[in-house]
Amino acid sequence: MSEDENDRPRKSWLVPVPDQSERQRGGPGSIVDRQSADHRALDELMRAYDDEPDPDARGRIVAELGERALRHAFAEEVVLFPAYRKHFPDAGDELTAHIEGDHQQVNDLLHALQRADPRAPGYDAQVREAFAVIRHDAHDEEDDLLPRLQQVADDAELQAIGAAWEAARTASPTRPHPKVSRRPPWNALAALGLAASDRVKDAVDAVAPVGTGRRTVVVGLLAGALGAAAMTATEKAEQAVTGRTGSFMPAHTLQALLGRDVHDSTPVVWVMHYGQGAAVGVLRAVMAQRGLRGAAAWPVFTGVRLAVDQTLENGTGVGAPPWTWSRPDLVVDVVHKAVYALVTGLVADRSLPRR
Ligand SMILES: [Fe+2]
Ligand SMILES: [Fe+2]
Predict the structure, then answer these.
(1) What residues are neighbours of ligand 1 (ion), with CB under 5 Å?
(2) 244/234 Cα distance (integer angstroms)
(3) Cα 4 to ligand 1 centre (Å)
(4) Over the stretch 191-208, which tens digit does the pLDDT of each residue have?
(5) SS3 65
C-alpha cells in the first residue's frame, strides 16, 4: 500500500460508516451493519494481540483473527464487490481492484504466518504488517465503498446483500489461499473444494494439535490411507493393462491374524488394504518427525512397507516367500508399494513441520 493510497481524498458528501446511526446503516442485518460489526470484531482481536505478552497465546489470536479476516474478505469478493460494480460499472472496478489488492496482501501475509513460530524473529513485524493492511481495508470500505453504495441502494437491497454476504462468509474457505483469483467466478468455483479441504484440516488441527504426538499418529493414518488409495488406483490401471486379477491375500492375512477361517472376501480385502496402509503410514509420519523425509525416505519406506507385508503374510503362513514369486509379480508388487510410499511420504512431509 503506498502513501498515496493511504491519503486517498475522502468525498466530503459521504458519511463514514462509524458516524452513522443504526437506522442510517440500513438497520440490523444490512451489509453496512454487518461489515461494521465484523470490522469492530477484527479490531478487538488486533488490540487483544497488542495486550497479550505470551507468544503462544499471540499465535492463537493471529489464527482466530486470520480466519475471521479471510472469511470476511472472501464474502466481499463474491458478494459485496460484484454488487458494487453493478451500480458503478466504471469507477467501481478501480476501487474494488484496489481493495482486492489489499486482500491479496493479507492472504500472502497470513499464508506466511500460518506455519511460523510466534517466537521467531520477524513474526511480530509480519503480524503488524497484516494488521495495517486489514485496518486500511476497513477504512476504504467504511469511508468510501459502503457510503457510495448507500447512495444508490435502498434498505431492502442493503439487507439482501447483507444476507448473501453472511451466507458466503459461512460457506467460505477458512485458510489463506494466495494463488486463488480474487474475482468471481474463479474464487467461488475454487471455494467449493477449498472450503471442504480447509474444514478437514481444521478438524485435524482440533483433534491433533500441531507439535503433539497425537498429530503424528493422525497425520500418519491419513497419509497412509491416501497412499493406499493411490496404490489402489495404480493397481486398477495396471490390472486393466496386464489382465492380472486382484488378490485375496490381504483378506487371508487378516483372517489368519484374527484366528478365523481363511476364505475369499472382498470387504475383508478392503479393510486390510486400508487398515494396513493407514497403520504403516504412522511409521512414515515418525520418519518425517525424525528428519528422514523427501526423496531419501522414499526407498527406505518402500522397503519398510514390503517388509511389513512379507512379515505378516509369511508369518501367518498364508503367503509364499518372495523368492518363490515370478519376476513380473515381484516387479509389480515393488512398483505398487513404491506408489504407496511416495504418496504417503508426500502427505506426511507436507503436514508435519521439520523439527
Ligand atoms: Fe475487505
Ligand atoms: Fe470489510
Answers:
(1) 73, 76, 137
(2) 13
(3) 19
(4) 999 999 999 999 988 999
(5) helix
Instruction: Give me the amino acid identity at 138.
Output: A
Cell numbers for 3: 502513501
CA of 70 to the centre of ligand 1 (A): 9
Query: How confident is the model at residue 355, as a pLDDT?
Result: 62
* CA separation, residue 85 to residues 78, 93, 143, 178, 221 (Å): 11, 6, 17, 23, 47
Q: Strand, helix or coil at 200?
A: helix
Cell (9 digits) for 281: 503410514
Higher local confidence (pLDDT), 90 or 186:
186
Predicted structure pTM score: 0.76
Residue 209, pLDDT score = 86
What are the cell numbers at 346?
508426500
Distance 85 CA to ligand 2 centre (A): 16
| CA nearest neighbour of 31 among 163, 147, 167, 172 | 163
